[in-house]
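=== Per-residue structure ===
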Amino acid sequence: QRTRPTLLLLPDHSVLVMGGIVSIASNGVKTRSQAVERLVLRHAGLLTRAALKAERLPDLPGPLREGFMPVALPDGRAMVIGGNTSPYIGCMPCIADTYILDAQHDNWRPGPKLNEPRAEGSATLLPDGTVLVAGGWTSEHGWGGAGTRNVERWDPQKNIFEKDPARMATFVAMHNALWVPGEEGKQLLIAGGNSAAVQLYDVQHDSWRVVGETCQGSYKVGWLTTIP
């Protein structure tokens, strides 16, 4: 049992449930979990009912952390990026490590390191197969702060993260990223977290701009549902 796990939808429609908090002591110290489970919907057959099955996978490798950034890769693997190893919000410290899960063979292996340690950013698979890592807290921010505008990309061909010269329009951390309905692969929205600004990333032009604002920034709650 745990609260605030990180969820990731895989291409086969199963869902990874990763990490989370097992308990919080009276002094505020959290006991974190490294557990990873996969939720799979077994469809109904002639003699069976549909059932949701939880499968235990190997734990997240590396240090205990939260605020890591997950992304599903088109070949069925999953990548976990960065994270915060401190009991406090921010990057004191956070890590540059990444890990890749082969869900078919149930094993993790180390991935390439980020250019700078980062926590509570967003990771988005782009149409060209690269992964865009945007915002969050980096080592220059310590405990909390406004976040970063820095962006980097994972190139699967070179298997390295490269700094993107196009910086975000404003500082943000703890946010969500969501494709604009009907503009998937072209227009990416960034909102929520510790900023009221709603930013739009234009994939074709590799450019950022502010397109609106919310009443109040919020921590990754109630954002990923599209209302017709």
User: Anything to note?
Assistant: Residues 178 and 189 are 5 Å apart (CA to CA). The two ends are 34 Å apart (CA to CA). The chain is about 0% helix and 40% strand.
